[in-house]
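Entry 12.
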Amino acid sequence: PAADAVPGTPTPTPTPTGSATGEPPIEMDPVDPGSAPTTATRPRPVAPPTRPRSPGPTPTTSPTTSPTTSPTTATTAPPAEPDPKFSEADLCDEANCVLSEYDRPCCVKYKPKGPVISQRIGGVPQTLDRTMVRAGVDGIKPRVIKCGEKAGVQGTVKITVAVSADGVVTSADVQETPDTALGTCVVGALRVAKFGKSVEGGSFTYPFVF
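Predicted 3D structure (tokens):
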């Protein structure tokens, strides 16, 4: 028979174990890497877009202007003043008019009335012209100069000359001279002059001033 409990003696209370304390042991589930919380990273600040600089006004270059030259106005030389040694009649004969290119009013009657080409027949001029007279006289000028040096006088010798169609002098006469020997010498020089051919030939009076 069981022993009776001693009156007045308390029954010892058993010490609870870990499983009987009312707090069961906690089991930790393994951590899923995919579900693990990730540390939130602060987004890197993005620099604000730079506004393109508005282009400044393009420097304008002043156009280079080339220097302008004022047009040169061609001036026509005035007609030569008449030599006081000659009279108006002397300056208006055919020879002087031809040599002066008909620049005097009194020479109009000698001036050709058409182009030079229309005055020629077969390439030969109708009459003795200014160019032919000048060329013929220029050919004997050295002889005329020698005449003046030999005579040693001053003045004007005018010779009337007739020329054939072949350009040969047919006559040469003294019209005026300050010295007979000088006039004769100039006539001799003109007699050997050669002129160009023409259809009708011609005549002229030529003044030589010494």
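Annotation: The beta strands are 120-121, 124-125, 156-163, 169-176, 202-209. The chain has a mean pLDDT of 73.
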